[in-house]
Design goal:
Largest sheet: 5 strands, mixed
CATH class of the largest domain: Mainly Alpha
Distance between the termini: 104 Å
Structural class: alpha+beta
Radius of gyration: 31 Å
Family: Belongs to the 'phage' integrase family.
Protein name: Integrase
Strand content: 5-15%
Keywords: DNA integration, DNA recombination, DNA-binding
GO molecular function, one term: DNA binding
Strand order of the largest sheet: 1-2-3-4-5
Protein backbone atom coordinates (compact mmCIF):
# COMPACT_ATOMS: atom_id res chain seq x y z
CA UNK A 1 0.00 0.00 0.00
CA UNK A 2 1.26 3.48 -0.89
CA UNK A 3 2.34 5.50 2.13
CA UNK A 4 1.43 9.21 2.29
CA UNK A 5 4.28 11.68 2.54
CA UNK A 6 4.69 13.12 6.03
CA UNK A 7 4.02 16.85 5.81
CA UNK A 8 5.69 19.40 8.07
CA UNK A 9 3.66 21.95 10.08
CA UNK A 10 4.65 24.65 7.58
CA UNK A 11 3.49 22.54 4.62
CA UNK A 12 0.20 21.79 6.39
CA UNK A 13 -0.32 25.51 7.06
CA UNK A 14 0.20 26.17 3.34
CA UNK A 15 -2.28 23.42 2.48
CA UNK A 16 -4.85 25.05 4.79
CA UNK A 17 -5.34 27.78 2.18
CA UNK A 18 -6.41 25.31 -0.54
CA UNK A 19 -9.94 23.87 -0.72
CA UNK A 20 -9.98 20.07 -0.55
CA UNK A 21 -8.90 17.09 1.56
CA UNK A 22 -5.17 16.91 2.22
CA UNK A 23 -3.46 13.76 3.52
CA UNK A 24 -0.83 14.93 5.99
CA UNK A 25 0.67 11.50 6.80
CA UNK A 26 2.63 10.65 9.92
CA UNK A 27 0.23 8.00 11.25
CA UNK A 28 -1.06 4.60 10.17
CA UNK A 29 -4.41 5.20 8.50
CA UNK A 30 -5.44 8.37 6.67
CA UNK A 31 -5.21 11.68 8.52
CA UNK A 32 -6.84 14.43 6.48
CA UNK A 33 -6.95 18.20 6.77
CA UNK A 34 -10.36 19.06 5.30
CA UNK A 35 -10.62 22.61 3.93
CA UNK A 36 -14.09 23.66 2.79
CA UNK A 37 -16.00 26.83 1.95
CA UNK A 38 -19.18 27.33 3.99
CA UNK A 39 -22.48 28.64 2.63
CA UNK A 40 -21.56 32.02 4.06
CA UNK A 41 -18.43 32.04 1.91
CA UNK A 42 -16.02 31.56 4.82
CA UNK A 43 -13.29 28.89 4.97
CA UNK A 44 -13.56 26.04 7.52
CA UNK A 45 -10.59 23.80 8.41
CA UNK A 46 -10.97 20.58 10.37
CA UNK A 47 -9.25 17.23 10.96
CA UNK A 48 -10.63 13.87 9.79
CA UNK A 49 -9.11 10.45 10.50
CA UNK A 50 -10.06 7.45 8.36
CA UNK A 51 -9.04 3.92 9.38
CA UNK A 52 -9.86 0.51 7.87
CA UNK A 53 -9.80 -2.60 10.06
CA UNK A 54 -11.22 -6.01 9.21
CA UNK A 55 -12.74 -4.69 6.01
CA UNK A 56 -14.60 -1.94 7.91
CA UNK A 57 -14.01 1.75 7.27
CA UNK A 58 -14.42 4.16 10.18
CA UNK A 59 -14.21 7.95 10.13
CA UNK A 60 -13.50 10.22 13.11
CA UNK A 61 -13.64 13.99 13.42
CA UNK A 62 -10.72 15.27 15.47
CA UNK A 63 -11.62 18.95 15.81
CA UNK A 64 -10.81 22.28 14.27
CA UNK A 65 -7.36 22.88 12.76
CA UNK A 66 -4.94 25.45 14.15
CA UNK A 67 -1.24 26.00 13.43
CA UNK A 68 -0.45 27.07 16.99
CA UNK A 69 -1.56 26.09 20.49
CA UNK A 70 -5.11 27.30 20.98
CA UNK A 71 -7.97 26.31 23.26
CA UNK A 72 -10.63 24.38 21.37
CA UNK A 73 -8.48 23.75 18.29
CA UNK A 74 -6.04 20.99 17.29
CA UNK A 75 -2.50 21.31 15.95
CA UNK A 76 -0.86 18.87 13.51
CA UNK A 77 1.05 17.12 16.30
CA UNK A 78 -2.09 16.81 18.42
CA UNK A 79 -4.10 15.46 15.49
CA UNK A 80 -1.48 12.75 14.85
CA UNK A 81 -1.48 11.89 18.55
CA UNK A 82 -5.29 11.62 18.59
CA UNK A 83 -5.29 9.48 15.43
CA UNK A 84 -2.67 7.14 16.88
CA UNK A 85 -4.70 6.78 20.11
CA UNK A 86 -7.85 5.93 18.11
CA UNK A 87 -5.96 3.27 16.14
CA UNK A 88 -4.59 1.71 19.34
CA UNK A 89 -8.05 1.66 20.94
CA UNK A 90 -9.53 -0.11 17.93
CA UNK A 91 -6.76 -2.70 17.81
CA UNK A 92 -7.21 -3.39 21.56
CA UNK A 93 -11.00 -3.69 21.28
CA UNK A 94 -11.99 -0.38 22.95
CA UNK A 95 -14.55 2.06 21.57
CA UNK A 96 -12.64 5.23 20.67
CA UNK A 97 -15.76 7.27 19.92
CA UNK A 98 -16.83 7.42 23.55
CA UNK A 99 -13.43 8.75 24.60
CA UNK A 100 -13.28 11.26 21.73
CA UNK A 101 -16.78 12.50 22.59
CA UNK A 102 -15.87 12.95 26.26
CA UNK A 103 -12.61 14.72 25.34
CA UNK A 104 -14.39 17.17 23.08
CA UNK A 105 -16.92 17.83 25.84
CA UNK A 106 -14.22 18.51 28.41
CA UNK A 107 -12.14 20.67 26.06
CA UNK A 108 -15.05 22.90 25.01
CA UNK A 109 -13.56 26.39 24.63
CA UNK A 110 -14.74 29.34 26.69
CA UNK A 111 -17.60 31.15 24.99
CA UNK A 112 -17.02 34.90 24.63
CA UNK A 113 -19.93 37.31 24.39
CA UNK A 114 -20.08 40.19 21.94
CA UNK A 115 -19.91 42.65 24.82
CA UNK A 116 -16.58 41.05 25.81
CA UNK A 117 -15.14 40.96 22.30
CA UNK A 118 -16.17 44.30 20.81
CA UNK A 119 -13.78 46.35 23.01
CA UNK A 120 -10.96 44.06 21.83
CA UNK A 121 -12.08 44.50 18.22
CA UNK A 122 -12.18 48.30 18.56
CA UNK A 123 -8.71 48.27 20.12
CA UNK A 124 -7.45 46.14 17.22
CA UNK A 125 -8.93 48.53 14.64
CA UNK A 126 -7.38 51.50 16.39
CA UNK A 127 -3.98 49.78 16.64
CA UNK A 128 -4.05 48.84 12.94
CA UNK A 129 -5.25 52.34 11.97
CA UNK A 130 -8.29 50.95 10.15
CA UNK A 131 -10.48 54.01 10.71
CA UNK A 132 -10.62 56.69 8.02
CA UNK A 133 -10.94 59.35 10.71
CA UNK A 134 -10.38 59.57 14.49
CA UNK A 135 -14.09 60.41 14.79
CA UNK A 136 -15.10 56.95 13.58
CA UNK A 137 -14.07 55.10 16.75
CA UNK A 138 -16.37 57.02 19.15
CA UNK A 139 -19.14 56.94 16.52
CA UNK A 140 -18.92 53.15 16.19
CA UNK A 141 -18.63 52.68 19.96
CA UNK A 142 -21.81 54.71 20.38
CA UNK A 143 -23.55 52.78 17.58
CA UNK A 144 -22.70 49.46 19.22
CA UNK A 145 -23.70 50.61 22.71
CA UNK A 146 -27.06 52.06 21.67
CA UNK A 147 -28.24 49.77 18.88
CA UNK A 148 -26.39 46.43 18.91
CA UNK A 149 -25.47 45.64 22.50
CA UNK A 150 -29.07 45.54 23.81
CA UNK A 151 -30.03 42.74 21.41
CA UNK A 152 -26.71 40.94 20.77
CA UNK A 153 -24.24 41.94 23.47
CA UNK A 154 -25.06 39.13 25.90
CA UNK A 155 -24.92 36.37 23.28
CA UNK A 156 -21.93 34.11 22.87
CA UNK A 157 -20.12 34.75 19.59
CA UNK A 158 -20.97 31.20 18.44
CA UNK A 159 -24.63 31.66 19.34
CA UNK A 160 -25.21 34.55 16.95
CA UNK A 161 -27.10 33.48 13.84
CA UNK A 162 -28.17 35.40 10.73
CA UNK A 163 -31.73 35.31 12.11
CA UNK A 164 -30.61 36.96 15.37
CA UNK A 165 -28.78 39.69 13.46
CA UNK A 166 -31.77 40.26 11.16
CA UNK A 167 -34.00 40.59 14.22
CA UNK A 168 -31.83 43.46 15.49
CA UNK A 169 -31.19 45.15 12.14
CA UNK A 170 -34.73 45.04 10.72
CA UNK A 171 -36.38 47.62 13.04
CA UNK A 172 -33.24 49.75 12.83
CA UNK A 173 -33.31 49.73 9.01
CA UNK A 174 -36.99 50.62 8.94
CA UNK A 175 -36.55 53.49 11.38
CA UNK A 176 -33.21 54.79 10.08
CA UNK A 177 -31.79 53.07 6.96
CA UNK A 178 -28.44 54.85 7.23
CA UNK A 179 -27.97 53.74 10.85
CA UNK A 180 -29.03 50.18 10.02
CA UNK A 181 -26.57 49.92 7.14
CA UNK A 182 -23.81 51.36 9.30
CA UNK A 183 -24.59 48.74 11.97
CA UNK A 184 -24.34 45.92 9.42
CA UNK A 185 -21.08 47.36 8.11
CA UNK A 186 -19.77 47.16 11.68
CA UNK A 187 -20.94 43.59 12.34
CA UNK A 188 -19.64 41.93 9.17
CA UNK A 189 -15.92 42.79 9.64
CA UNK A 190 -16.26 42.07 13.37
CA UNK A 191 -17.29 38.46 12.71
CA UNK A 192 -14.63 38.18 10.01
CA UNK A 193 -12.12 39.18 12.70
CA UNK A 194 -13.59 36.59 15.10
CA UNK A 195 -13.13 33.87 12.44
CA UNK A 196 -9.47 34.61 11.78
CA UNK A 197 -7.14 31.76 12.66
CA UNK A 198 -5.13 33.79 15.14
CA UNK A 199 -8.35 34.69 17.01
CA UNK A 200 -10.68 31.70 16.49
CA UNK A 201 -13.40 33.14 18.72
CA UNK A 202 -16.04 31.75 16.36
CA UNK A 203 -16.18 28.28 14.84
CA UNK A 204 -15.27 28.38 11.10
CA UNK A 205 -18.13 25.94 10.38
CA UNK A 206 -20.62 28.63 11.43
CA UNK A 207 -19.28 31.20 8.97
CA UNK A 208 -19.94 34.94 9.03
CA UNK A 209 -23.61 35.61 9.92
CA UNK A 210 -23.56 39.30 8.96
CA UNK A 211 -22.54 39.33 5.28
CA UNK A 212 -24.86 40.89 2.71
CA UNK A 213 -25.16 37.54 0.94
CA UNK A 214 -26.34 35.72 4.09
CA UNK A 215 -28.75 38.49 5.12
CA UNK A 216 -30.14 39.47 1.72
CA UNK A 217 -33.42 37.52 2.12
CA UNK A 218 -33.80 38.30 5.82
CA UNK A 219 -33.73 42.12 5.82
CA UNK A 220 -36.47 44.50 4.61
CA UNK A 221 -36.32 45.71 1.03
CA UNK A 222 -35.39 49.29 0.31
CA UNK A 223 -39.05 50.21 -0.32
CA UNK A 224 -40.03 49.04 3.16
CA UNK A 225 -37.54 51.33 4.87
CA UNK A 226 -38.25 54.86 5.92
CA UNK A 227 -37.22 57.46 3.38
CA UNK A 228 -33.74 58.75 4.09
CA UNK A 229 -33.76 62.04 5.97
CA UNK A 230 -31.13 64.72 5.80
CA UNK A 231 -29.95 67.41 8.17
CA UNK A 232 -32.56 70.19 7.89
CA UNK A 233 -31.26 73.38 6.34
CA UNK A 234 -32.34 76.98 6.25
CA UNK A 235 -33.70 77.73 2.78
CA UNK A 236 -31.66 80.15 0.73
CA UNK A 237 -34.36 82.83 0.63
CA UNK A 238 -34.39 82.87 4.47
CA UNK A 239 -30.68 82.57 5.11
CA UNK A 240 -29.65 86.26 4.80
CA UNK A 241 -32.51 87.10 7.21
CA UNK A 242 -31.18 84.53 9.68
CA UNK A 243 -27.70 86.12 9.54
CA UNK A 244 -29.19 89.63 9.94
CA UNK A 245 -31.19 88.57 13.00
CA UNK A 246 -28.09 86.96 14.48
CA UNK A 247 -26.17 90.21 14.05
CA UNK A 248 -29.04 92.44 15.26
CA UNK A 249 -29.66 90.27 18.33
CA UNK A 250 -26.18 91.05 19.61
CA UNK A 251 -25.10 87.44 19.23
CA UNK A 252 -22.24 88.73 17.09
CA UNK A 253 -20.69 89.82 20.40
CA UNK A 254 -21.09 86.28 21.73
CA UNK A 255 -18.49 83.60 21.03
CA UNK A 256 -21.25 81.09 20.19
CA UNK A 257 -22.80 83.50 17.70
CA UNK A 258 -19.44 84.17 16.05
CA UNK A 259 -18.86 80.40 15.83
CA UNK A 260 -22.20 80.01 14.01
CA UNK A 261 -21.22 82.68 11.50
CA UNK A 262 -17.77 81.16 10.96
CA UNK A 263 -19.27 77.71 10.32
CA UNK A 264 -21.61 79.20 7.71
CA UNK A 265 -18.93 81.35 6.09
CA UNK A 266 -16.51 78.43 5.67
CA UNK A 267 -19.17 75.76 4.82
CA UNK A 268 -17.49 73.61 7.46
CA UNK A 269 -18.57 70.66 9.53
CA UNK A 270 -19.36 71.80 13.07
CA UNK A 271 -16.79 69.43 14.54
CA UNK A 272 -13.99 71.20 12.67
CA UNK A 273 -14.91 74.58 14.19
CA UNK A 274 -16.36 73.85 17.62
CA UNK A 275 -16.50 70.91 20.04
CA UNK A 276 -18.23 67.79 18.72
CA UNK A 277 -19.94 66.02 21.63
CA UNK A 278 -19.57 62.59 19.96
CA UNK A 279 -15.94 62.85 18.84
CA UNK A 280 -13.21 61.68 21.14
CA UNK A 281 -10.50 63.54 19.20
CA UNK A 282 -10.07 67.32 19.50
CA UNK A 283 -10.87 68.40 15.95
CA UNK A 284 -12.03 71.97 16.63
CA UNK A 285 -10.36 75.02 15.09
CA UNK A 286 -7.20 76.33 16.75
CA UNK A 287 -5.34 79.56 16.09
CA UNK A 288 -2.20 77.71 15.02
CA UNK A 289 -4.04 76.41 11.92
CA UNK A 290 -5.03 79.91 10.74
CA UNK A 291 -2.87 82.14 8.58
CA UNK A 292 -4.58 85.55 8.61
CA UNK A 293 -1.93 87.13 6.40
CA UNK A 294 -2.65 84.66 3.61
CA UNK A 295 -6.34 84.41 4.58
CA UNK A 296 -6.13 80.62 4.81
CA UNK A 297 -7.34 78.11 7.34
CA UNK A 298 -5.53 74.77 7.02
CA UNK A 299 -7.26 71.85 8.77
CA UNK A 300 -4.88 68.88 9.28
CA UNK A 301 -5.93 65.61 7.63
CA UNK A 302 -6.35 63.79 10.96
CA UNK A 303 -9.05 66.27 11.99
CA UNK A 304 -11.14 65.68 8.87
CA UNK A 305 -13.98 63.18 8.56
CA UNK A 306 -12.12 61.43 5.74
CA UNK A 307 -8.45 61.77 6.63
CA UNK A 308 -7.45 59.96 3.41
CA UNK A 309 -8.48 63.08 1.47
CA UNK A 310 -5.61 64.97 3.06
CA UNK A 311 -5.48 68.35 4.74
CA UNK A 312 -8.31 70.76 3.93
CA UNK A 313 -7.49 74.36 3.06
CA UNK A 314 -10.26 76.94 3.37
CA UNK A 315 -9.88 80.39 1.79
CA UNK A 316 -11.18 82.93 4.33
CA UNK A 317 -13.55 85.65 3.16
CA UNK A 318 -13.38 89.24 4.46
CA UNK A 319 -16.32 88.48 6.75
CA UNK A 320 -14.60 85.38 8.19
CA UNK A 321 -11.46 87.43 8.84
CA UNK A 322 -13.62 90.04 10.56
CA UNK A 323 -14.91 87.37 12.95
CA UNK A 324 -11.32 86.42 13.80
CA UNK A 325 -10.39 90.07 14.33
CA UNK A 326 -13.28 90.47 16.77
CA UNK A 327 -12.02 87.47 18.76
CA UNK A 328 -8.49 88.89 18.79
CA UNK A 329 -9.82 92.21 20.05
CA UNK A 330 -11.39 90.31 22.93
CA UNK A 331 -7.95 88.88 23.76
CA UNK A 332 -8.89 85.35 22.76
CA UNK A 333 -6.12 84.51 20.30
CA UNK A 334 -3.27 82.16 21.16
CA UNK A 335 -1.47 79.62 18.98
CA UNK A 336 -2.29 76.75 21.31
CA UNK A 337 -5.91 77.69 22.11
CA UNK A 338 -9.21 76.92 20.47
CA UNK A 339 -10.48 79.75 18.31
CA UNK A 340 -14.01 79.63 19.73
CA UNK A 341 -13.76 79.40 23.49
CA UNK A 342 -15.25 81.25 26.43
CA UNK A 343 -13.25 83.59 28.62
CA UNK A 344 -12.98 80.67 31.06
CA UNK A 345 -11.30 78.63 28.32
CA UNK A 346 -14.18 76.24 27.58
CA UNK A 347 -14.56 75.32 23.89
CA UNK A 348 -17.95 76.23 22.42
CA UNK A 349 -20.10 73.14 21.79
CA UNK A 350 -22.85 72.22 19.35
CA UNK A 351 -25.53 72.91 21.96
CA UNK A 352 -24.68 76.63 21.82
CA UNK A 353 -25.41 76.77 18.09
CA UNK A 354 -28.64 74.80 18.56
CA UNK A 355 -29.84 77.28 21.22
CA UNK A 356 -29.06 80.26 18.97
CA UNK A 357 -30.98 78.71 16.06
CA UNK A 358 -34.00 77.98 18.30
CA UNK A 359 -34.03 81.49 19.80
CA UNK A 360 -33.71 83.22 16.42
CA UNK A 361 -36.45 81.04 14.96
CA UNK A 362 -38.81 82.08 17.78
CA UNK A 363 -37.85 85.73 17.25
CA UNK A 364 -38.56 85.42 13.51
CA UNK A 365 -42.04 83.98 14.13
CA UNK A 366 -42.81 86.75 16.63
CA UNK A 367 -41.92 89.26 13.88
CA UNK A 368 -44.38 87.59 11.47
CA UNK A 369 -42.00 85.15 9.77
CA UNK A 370 -42.25 81.37 9.51
CA UNK A 371 -39.19 80.61 11.58
CA UNK A 372 -36.16 78.86 10.14
CA UNK A 373 -37.45 75.41 9.25
CA UNK A 374 -36.92 72.98 6.37
CA UNK A 375 -40.28 72.26 4.76
CA UNK A 376 -38.80 69.44 2.69
CA UNK A 377 -37.70 67.71 5.91
CA UNK A 378 -41.11 67.77 7.56
CA UNK A 379 -40.86 71.31 8.87
CA UNK A 380 -37.97 70.43 11.15
CA UNK A 381 -35.90 73.25 12.61
CA UNK A 382 -32.77 74.06 10.59
CA UNK A 383 -29.45 72.69 11.76
CA UNK A 384 -26.07 74.36 11.50
CA UNK A 385 -24.59 71.34 9.71
CA UNK A 386 -27.40 71.11 7.14
CA UNK A 387 -27.28 74.83 6.44
CA UNK A 388 -23.50 75.23 6.27
CA UNK A 389 -23.12 72.23 3.95
CA UNK A 390 -26.33 71.64 2.00
CA UNK A 391 -27.37 75.28 1.69
CA UNK A 392 -23.88 76.20 0.49
CA UNK A 393 -23.86 73.44 -2.13
CA UNK A 394 -27.39 74.38 -3.27
CA UNK A 395 -26.39 78.04 -3.57
CA UNK A 396 -23.20 77.17 -5.46
CA UNK A 397 -25.12 75.00 -7.93
CA UNK A 398 -27.66 77.77 -8.55
CA UNK A 399 -24.84 80.25 -9.12
CA UNK A 400 -23.31 78.00 -11.77
CA UNK A 401 -20.20 76.88 -9.90
CA UNK A 402 -18.83 73.52 -11.09
CA UNK A 403 -19.40 70.34 -9.12
CA UNK A 404 -15.63 69.80 -8.86
CA UNK A 405 -15.22 73.21 -7.27
CA UNK A 406 -17.96 72.73 -4.65
CA UNK A 407 -16.83 69.18 -3.87
CA UNK A 408 -13.32 70.50 -3.25
CA UNK A 409 -14.73 73.21 -0.98
CA UNK A 410 -16.59 70.55 1.03
CA UNK A 411 -13.54 68.21 1.20
CA UNK A 412 -15.49 65.43 -0.47
CA UNK A 413 -12.85 64.26 -2.91
CA UNK A 414 -9.13 63.59 -3.08
CA UNK A 415 -7.02 65.94 -5.12
CA UNK A 416 -7.41 69.69 -5.49
CA UNK A 417 -8.40 70.46 -1.91
CA UNK A 418 -5.58 68.62 -0.13
CA UNK A 419 -2.56 70.78 -0.82
CA UNK A 420 -1.23 72.55 2.26
CA UNK A 421 -0.84 75.91 0.49
CA UNK A 422 -3.76 75.74 -1.90
CA UNK A 423 -1.47 75.17 -4.93
CA UNK A 424 -4.23 74.00 -7.24
CA UNK A 425 -6.08 75.20 -10.31
CA UNK A 426 -9.02 75.89 -7.98
CA UNK A 427 -7.15 78.36 -5.77
CA UNK A 428 -8.48 81.63 -7.16
CA UNK A 429 -11.90 80.23 -8.12
CA UNK A 430 -12.46 78.90 -4.61
CA UNK A 431 -11.41 82.17 -3.01
CA UNK A 432 -13.80 84.08 -5.25
CA UNK A 433 -16.57 81.56 -4.58
CA UNK A 434 -16.22 81.74 -0.79
CA UNK A 435 -16.24 85.57 -0.92
CA UNK A 436 -19.39 85.53 -3.07
CA UNK A 437 -21.01 83.12 -0.59
CA UNK A 438 -20.09 85.43 2.30
CA UNK A 439 -21.53 88.44 0.45
CA UNK A 440 -24.79 86.53 -0.07
CA UNK A 441 -25.02 85.61 3.61
CA UNK A 442 -24.49 89.21 4.76
CA UNK A 443 -26.45 91.03 2.06
CA UNK A 444 -29.12 92.19 4.55
CA UNK A 445 -26.59 93.29 7.20
CA UNK A 446 -25.29 96.86 7.52
CA UNK A 447 -21.82 97.40 6.10
CA UNK A 448 -20.43 98.18 9.57
CA UNK A 449 -21.87 95.01 11.15
CA UNK A 450 -18.45 94.02 12.49
CA UNK A 451 -17.92 97.28 14.40
CA UNK A 452 -17.95 96.99 18.20
CA UNK A 453 -20.84 98.83 19.80
CA UNK A 454 -21.33 99.83 23.38
CA UNK A 455 -23.90 97.75 25.19
Amino acid sequence: MRTARVLTPLEVRQKSEAIGEHNVGGVAGTLLLVVRKTQAGEISRAWKFVIRTGGTKQTFGLGRYTYKQQVGAVTLAEAREKAQKIREDILEGRDPRAEVSQEVKNDKPTEHTLDELFPKYFAYCEKMDLWKSPKMLPDYERLYRLHLSPGLGGKGVNEVTPAAIAQVLTPLLIKSPSTGKKAQHLLSPFFRWCLRLENSYRSPALGNPATSEVLKDRLPKAGQCKATTHHPMCHLEDLPRFVRLLVESGRVNDVGGMACLFILLTASRQGNVIKNSRAGAKCHAVWADIDKRRALWTIPAQKMKVAANGAHVVPLSKQALAILSRLEALGMSSDEDAVFRSLRGKVVGEAACARIIKNLSVRDREAGGNGFVDKEQGGRLMTMHGTARAAFQTWAAEQGYSRDLTEAALHHTKGGNGDAYLRTKYAEQRRQMMQAWANFLFNECPKDWAKFRAK
